[in-house]
Design brief:
The structure is a homodimer of 197-residue chains. By secondary structure, the first copy, chain A, is mostly helical. Chain A is 68% helix and 7% strand. A 3-stranded antiparallel beta sheet of chain A has the order 1-3-2. In chain A, β2 and β3 form a beta hairpin. The longest helix of chain A has 48 residues. The first copy, chain A, is elongated, with a radius of gyration of 24 Å. The interface between A and B is large, with 67 and 67 residues. The structure holds a DNA duplex (28 and 28 nucleotides).
Chain lengths: 197, 197
DNA sequence: CGCCGCATGTAAGCGGTTACATGATTTT
DNA sequence: AAAATCATGTAACCGCTTACATGCGGCG
């Protein structure tokens, strides 16, 4: 399981399940979503495997927390996961499957609308990432290359998000144009056919 | 389920499970993997839902085939899936999670090696896509903008793969360089510290 | 004779999502 | 008084992967 490894990575410092969820929402959200209902049982399992240890701790506000701490065995497993090399090629890209079948709508204008919608979504996500970047850059003068390692590598993932979304946006632009040409060409042909009848 | 929709899209023309697997391997492989053990039960379920119909047909070589054909209801469901707009943001990117925690290896040279390996993998996939593109371009003079719609949209997905992998490759390049600078800077500091002792 | 390609399936298990259940504290 | 936030969990279900089971026909 991959979530196991991500939790081990996040537990560089001790934390409880709820805090881990927040960490997901703040830093990893753009390429990894996690649910509390998945986090809790996974933490439990990791403890059973001896990769984590937990202790209860009273909280000022709300019920007591169950705080997990990574064991040395847990560290070793994390290290091994990364050392095994990059996990690539398992991606399933839903919107690309949709694009693949776009002709089956039988309506180029509907296909066009799909691409326009995709570009809008991409633009939103791109704007969100850019906002994070400018915020970070303005709050820390060491951004990006004088950050300490623990922040530098997350910064690299942000940069990857930015570059990928920019590439998707460029693709949307050019694809939309090409579909527009297609529509124009087709209507010319139709007129020619009508004139010929 | 998403595989359901992809199978519906692939069944523009009737086919059996084994052929569908081949279609996956030929055209969708780069953004969607599918297993026979998943395809067969899914086809069965789609038939139970009235989105497909099947008939047995003897084969020259090997056992008889079970050929599925899409019903009008199946067409409607496919259409609806695409019309609901692009499915984005559900992606879990394993290697980015690994990059995120790369500092925890506690060894910049190991992190560097990871990025080099990622770049190598990216390069391989990029080369594979480029080979497909040049093959297609040389075998069909209509490539890319005079292809018929049923080929044009798949061509768009190929182009997306190319652009994304190129972006990842650029990111790898610049990230590797930045890590190298980091290593160099660090060793300078170490020398300074030694001199100071 | 064994292996490969064609062809169809089942069973077990895993990882993840959705929905449900509970309850304290803080904010509106 | 109601809603939001903090906090932990369970149960049911779903989709997918891995492994297993079966069998035909052609090739070396």
């Amino acid at each position: 399981m991959a979530l196991e490894h991500v939790l081990l990575g996040l537990l560089r410092k001790p934390a409880n399940g709820y805090q881990l969820k927040d960490k997901f929402n703040h830093s990893l959200r753009h390429f990894w979503a996690a649910d509390l209902a998945q986090i809790y049982p996974t933490l439990k399992r990791l403890e059973q495997q001896g990769l984590l240890k937990s202790r209860r701790q009273a909280s000022d506000k709300g019920p007591p927390r169950k705080i997990y701490r990574r064991t040395r065995k847990g560290e070793r497993v994390l290290n091994q996961w990364i050392s095994e090399g990059p996990e690539t090629g398992r991606d399933r890209i839903g919107y690309l499957a949709q694009v693949f079948f776009l002709d089956q709508l039988g309506d180029l204008r509907a296909a066009h609308a799909f691409l326009v919608a995709l570009r809008a979504q991409t633009g939103e996500r791109l704007a969100a990432l850019r906002a994070i970047e400018t915020g970070w850059a303005s709050s820390d003068p060491r951004y990006p290359d004088r950050l300490q390692d623990a922040d530098f590598f997350p910064q690299l993932t942000l940069r990857m998000g930015l570059m990928k979304l920019a590439a998707i946006d460029r693709w949307c632009q050019e694809s939309i144009e090409r579909v527009e040409h297609r529509i124009a060409r087709r209507s010319v042909k139709e007129h020619a056919a009508e004139a010929g009848e």
